Amino acid sequence: MLEVKDLYAGIDGKEILKGINLTVKKGEIHAIMGPNGSGKSTLAKVLAGHPAYEVTKGEVIYEGKNLLEMSTDERAREGVFMAFQYPIEVPGVSNAQFLRLAYNEKRKHLGEEELDPLEFKDLLKERAKVVEMDASFMTRSVNEGFSGGEKKRNEILQMAVLEPKLAVLDETDSGLDIDALRIVAGGVNQLHNSENAVILVTHYQRLLNYIVPHFVHVLAQGRIAKEGGKELALELEQKGYDWLKPADSNVAVPAN
Amino acid sequence: MVTELIKQESSYLEALRDLHSAQPASNVEWLDSLRNTAMERFSELGFPSVKDEEWKYTNVAPIARMSIQPSAASADLELANFEVPEANDSQLVFINGKLQRDRSSVTALPDGVTAVDLVEACGSDHSTILREHLARFADYVSSGFTALNTGFISDGVFIHVRRNVEVSQPIHILFISDGAQPVTFPRVLIVAEENSSATIVESYLGANGAEYFTNAVVEVALKDAARLEHYKVQREGSDAFHVATTVAELGNNASYNTTTLNLGAKLSRHDVRTIMDHEGAECWVDGLYLVSENQHTDTHSVIDHRKPHCTSHQLYKGILDGKSRAVFNGKIFVRHDAQKTDAMQTNKNLLLSNEARVDTKPQLEILADDVKCAHGAAVGQIEEDELFYLETRGIHPDLARNLLTYGFAEEVINKIKVESIKQQLDEAVLNRLNTRLEV
């Protein structure tokens, strides 16, 4: 589904990702972990197409296509979704209006018929159960006045409506209390299936108690410093990230 | 060049004086005398220049370069999009300054409400009320444009709401220009007696491509505990000049809620003055200006707290695209006696292009010592991160910008209680890029 090959990227001329390789197949859940500044959020934003980040080298193949050549909105319509660490408020536009707009943009793109407001309302009601959101959220402006936990649940609701093939969740667990974490993680687990894939970007192992990854990749200073199964996350929980820090020693030593 | 301009202006003033001399007498002596006095004053004042601090950013010289000779209408108007069906039988329609009796109907208004032609009212039972209020608030001694309008009071509207009468349907006053009459002088006087309540919509529509000048003056007198919701919708044609003054005086515990929507005209200027000379009154003086290309819009607001225990709220938002330019100058005076004043003023602007420019100047002048006042101004652009968020949901960048622009304007749009006007404004904001939002 996704193949990231030797990816270099940065912002404002500062290189952050220094040769990322990552392969994600459908049905898989990958966790990207790492200390602050290791480049994990940058990776998420580059995959989603944030205009401020510049890819200087490497390629990203998504479903056989060159992802980096697609605009941000095109990527989304092709099934790439990113849940934000800090979702944006859109005053004046209700959650229902916004979700229907996004949903229909995707349907149009796929050559499917758009849903009218009534049809969409039924769909929305069904999907909202995934994150235990009640109807009052649908008439409120997108994220406006939402608590931190509500915003994160709203991100997962958007994911439930848009049904992405590849979902990148950027620090979705940050700032969540235990109940909200349970709801958000439960939502992701319900939405994950053998046809899609999830990339969890997280600093802490905590989220991985709820969403169990098939693979864990640890980033340090823009490179993948270590990879393994879910047990790697537990090891990090015990040891912290410090033992990975001297990443310079990881720089490939010339063969001679 | 300069001499040429002065010559043009003086010939324009000359033409206006000729036009004034040619207008038929009104048969109401005091009105004729008021018109003559005001015209004399206009001859002395002329048009303001950019050297005048109040007109620093708005150059009205192009108005003086216009021809004022009536001509054949140069463009057609599509009125269907701008109807206010809530006021089908409570509206007065003017075309090129003349009241259209066949298009106007006030049959839906309850007893105790009068909405009639202004000059006609001057000679009627209402004469005393008119004489007492007309030109009392709008100052023709210091303002050239108000003097000019006062010199030409003829067709206009007088609305009177009797004591304790509540009018549920909005009263719509519609001024349409197709360019055949290059200068019009709409004049409105609204007098709401004690404890009455009403909603009044004042609209200006014009043909795109026609060069004409609307010089309007609206006076509002709210007696004790009267409540008025007042909308001004300015959608003049693309080549029009619109210079208007609105003055409201509030009685004890009166409530004045006004929203001005400035969308049209090549050059528009609105002076809006709220006088709080009685205790316990409250006002909301809000607005939205939405301009693009080479449009220029200027709002000068004065909220004058003269007596204690009054509250004023002001929220003006501006959206500027292209090479457009906006001016917001908001003064709040809190006089010596106006203790316990609560005044809040905000002006926020969204620039959609790098070439648009806004000059904003909120001003507070406080002479009382026990007051609560705050003001602020902001100028911003759509943030890259906001756009990115919407785009990651599959929304095209143009549509995303539009949604965010709408979100910015929404605070003002949503306070509009006349549904058709709210919808028109929704569309004006969203349709800039052909977006539709349904529930």
Give an account of the 3D structure.
The complex is a heterodimer of chains A (256) and B (439). Chain A is of the alpha/beta class. Chain A has one domain: P-loop containing nucleotide triphosphate hydrolases (Rossmann fold, 3-Layer(aba) Sandwich), CATH 3.40.50.300. Chain A is 33% helix and 28% strand. Chain A has eight helices and twelve strands. In chain A, strands 6-9-10-3-11-12 form a six-stranded mixed sheet, sandwiched between helices. A four-stranded antiparallel sheet of chain A has the order 2-1-4-5. In chain A, a hairpin with a 2-residue loop joins strand 4 and strand 5. In chain A, helix 3 crosses helix 4 and helix 6 packs parallel to helix 7. Chain A is globular. The two termini of chain A are 37 Å apart. Chain B is of the alpha/beta class. Chain B is 23% helix and 36% strand. Chain B has nine helices and 20 strands. Chain B has a ten-stranded mixed sheet with strand order 2-1-5-8-10-12-14-16-18-20, with helices on one face. In chain B, strands 3, 4, 6, 7, 9, 11, 13, 15, 17 and 19 form a ten-stranded mixed sheet that branches. In chain B, helix 7 crosses helix 8. Chain B starts with a helix and ends in a 9-residue tail after the last helix. The relative contact order of chain B is 0.09. Chains A and B meet through helix 2, strand 7 and helix 3 of A and helix 7 and helix 8 of B.
